[in-house]
């Protein structure tokens, strides 16, 4: 009797005894399919990186509970890249050459992911994105497929400028971190401002180590813009909003926010509390009725329980569903092709729509979403010291685009802060 036949007989016996729920899966092949990635498990991006790892672990557990892929157990191999572009290339060399992984998911975040793209193109390896922006804009790798719901800067922050036009903005101020992601967003935002006919009355790029924004906020207030666009990282976002709360931004401001990373994270949201009210910012998913994609709320319920036990962001809206979707992208492609070959998988993904818990995804030629789905949300009636409020509808109201809109923009900022 062959090993495979013995395994089949054993599985049948277990099922007959009602032991299927406690039995370990019996694999058709002993060698696992290895999925490799890196993410910030320490450093300033660790809040998102740890969400990402947990979500991917959940996908691996789910797929293995269903029998794995191609009859093989799926194994996740992760390393801490500290969110650093100096770390990620070496890690991916190790994943390919030493760990000999079959499938690759990009590092979490724009900067560390961009650093591995030349290697991925040179080695002709499929790479699924993980919350990165314009990573393939310079490399033009034809085996890149992003899990994130944007394409270019217009898809990311275009809604913010559209809202500005609706409320009669004429003058805009820009504040951005001197980091690749923020500068890419800033460049796109400035182009949109020009197209919208807005006059730039203030622009400042600050070093990533900046902790005191009081002088910049005073300068913005003195410039009296109608709209302030900010492209910042989590620690910056917190400090900037606190400075606005302490100093004030002026009665002329109709819109404030736009491209602030961190306002999607539980720790930052809890820290800022009521200071968030009125701010308009980009998001990938919020618990509004228009974004109830099949399976996403069930996933988040399970994720929350796991996150509590592992001391990870328990909301998980911004990262976790999309990291889980990265696994689903690989899962559907591998099952459809019966292969883990990068060329075959890329060919499939270029031609097919994939169903995920963040909705259906189809890609354009550059590997970005063919139909981007970034939303602009406005914080409303946020109270201090209440973490659970962010799970409620009506706290992060979608104000753009129209197909996901759950409320109208309240403007100016001073009025929105009172609502």
Automatic annotation (TrEMBL):
Q: Which GO terms describe its biological process?
A: amino acid transport
Q: Per the database record, which ranges form the Leucine-binding protein domain?
A: 32-368
User: What SUPFAM superfamilies would the database entry show?
Assistant: Periplasmic binding protein-like I
* Gene3D superfamilies to which the protein is assigned, alphabetical: 3.40.50.2300
Give the signal sequence positions.
1-28
Q: Which InterPro entries match?
A: BCAA_transport (IPR051010), Leu-bd (IPR028081), Leu_Ile_Val-bd (IPR000709), Peripla_BP_I (IPR028082)
Instruction: Give the record's keywords alphabetically.
Output: Amino-acid transport, Signal, Transport
- Coiled coil regions, renumbered to chain: none
Q: Which family does it belong to?
A: Belongs to the leucine-binding protein family.
- UniProt name for this protein: Branched-chain amino acid transport system substrate-binding protein
């Amino acid at each position: 009797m062959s090993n495979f036949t013995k395994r089949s007989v054993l599985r049948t016996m277990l099922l007959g005894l009602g032991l299927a729920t406690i039995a370990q899966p019996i694999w058709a092949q002993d060698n696992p399919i290895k999925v490799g990635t890196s993410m910030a498990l320490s450093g300033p991006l660790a809040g998102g990186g740890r969400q990402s790892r947990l979500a991917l672990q959940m996908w691996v557990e789910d797929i293995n509970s269903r029998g794995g892929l191609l009859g093989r157990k799926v194994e996740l191999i992760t390393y801490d890249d500290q969110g650093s572009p100096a770390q990620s290339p070496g890690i991916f060399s190790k994943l390919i050459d030493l760990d000999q992984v079959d499938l690759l998911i990009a590092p979490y975040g724009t900067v560390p992911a961009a650093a591995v793209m030349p290697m991925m193109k040179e080695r002709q390896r499929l790479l699924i994105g993980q919350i990165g922006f314009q990573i393939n804009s310079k490399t033009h790798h034809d085996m890149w497929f992003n899990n994130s719901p944007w394409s270019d800067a217009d898809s990311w922050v275009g809604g913010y400028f559209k809202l500005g036009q609706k409320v009669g903005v004429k003058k805009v101020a820009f504040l951005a971190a001197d980091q690749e992601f923020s500068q890419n967003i800033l460049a796109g935002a400035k182009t949109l401002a020009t197209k919208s006919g807005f006059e730039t009355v203030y622009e400042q790029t600050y070093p990533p180590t900046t902790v005191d924004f009081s002088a910049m906020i005073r300068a913005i207030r003195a410039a009296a813009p109608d709209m302030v666009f900010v492209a910042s990282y989590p620690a910056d976002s917190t400090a900037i909003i606190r400075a606005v709360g302490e100093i004030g931004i002026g009665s002329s401001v109709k819109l404030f926010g736009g491209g602030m990373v961190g306002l999607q994270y539980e720790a930052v949201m809890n820290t800022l509390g009521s200071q968030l009210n009125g701010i308009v910012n980009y998001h990938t998913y919020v618990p509004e009725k228009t974004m109830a994609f099949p399976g996403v709320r069930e996933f988040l319920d399970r994720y929350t329980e796991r996150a509590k036990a592992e001391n990870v962001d328990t909301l998980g809206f911004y990262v976790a569903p999309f990291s889980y979707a990265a696994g689903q992208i690989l899962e559907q492609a591998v099952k459809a092709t019966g292969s883990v070959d990068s060329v075959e998988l890329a060919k499939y993904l270029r031609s097919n729509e994939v169903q995920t818990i963040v909705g259906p995804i189809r890609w354009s030629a550059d590997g970005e979403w063919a139909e981007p789905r970034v939303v602009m949300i406005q914080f409303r009636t946020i109270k201090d010291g209440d973490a659970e409020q962010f799970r409620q509808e009506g706290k992060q109201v979608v104000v753009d685009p129209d197909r996901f809109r759950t409320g109208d923009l309240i403007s100016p900022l001073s009025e929105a802060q009172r609502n």
